[in-house]
Recover the amino acids of this structure.
């Protein structure tokens, strides 16, 4: 019974995130999300909901369809790393202003390689392709990893209005 309740709560949160309207960020210069509550979503396994939310926000922010797909792919890759490696829920925050859209993913995992995603992996490597692809499709990727977990910010510049 309790499990059904948790599933219902998770489904409700996912539905809310899918239907919540994007909130543009007023100032494009600050490194942190605005205090007026960026879109926030916690996930454990539901990557389809993450992809749907990011795609909708990317289009609402003004990215072209192709760039929105790139951002969706990048967020999906990072979120999949949370599911596979972090063993903790992940959180996604999305905000944008007139200049860029930013997706921030946080989990309790730790990345020990300071160059993770910066070096092209060999074709026969068993891992490392996801973060490398993220760095190829996003305009800027920030990775902060310490004892409290890992935060990755994916930036994409918006086309001129």
């Amino acid at each position: 019974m309790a499990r059904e309740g948790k599933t219902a709560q998770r489904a409700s949160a996912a539905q809310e995130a899918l239907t919540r309207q994007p909130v543009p960020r007023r100032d494009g210069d600050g490194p942190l999300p605005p205090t007026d509550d960026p879109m926030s979503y916690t996930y454990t396994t539901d990557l389809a909901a993450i992809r749907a939310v990011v795609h909708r926000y990317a289009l609402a922010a003004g990215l072209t369809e192709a760039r929105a797909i790139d951002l969706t792919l990048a967020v999906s890759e990072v979120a999949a790393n949370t599911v596979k490696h972090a063993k903790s829920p992940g959180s996604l925050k999305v905000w944008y202003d007139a200049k860029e859209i930013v997706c921030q993913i946080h989990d309790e995992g730790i990345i020990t390689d300071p160059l993770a995603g910066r070096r092209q992996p060999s074709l026969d490597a068993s891992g490392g392709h996801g973060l490398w692809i993220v760095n190829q499709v996003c305009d800027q990727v920030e990775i902060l990893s310490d004892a409290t977990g890992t935060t990755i910010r994916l930036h994409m510049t918006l086309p001129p209005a």
In short: The domain at 2-19+38-157 is CATH 3.30.565.10 (Heat Shock Protein 90). The beta strands are 39-43, 90-96, 100-107, 140-146, 149-157. The two ends are 51 Å apart (CA to CA).
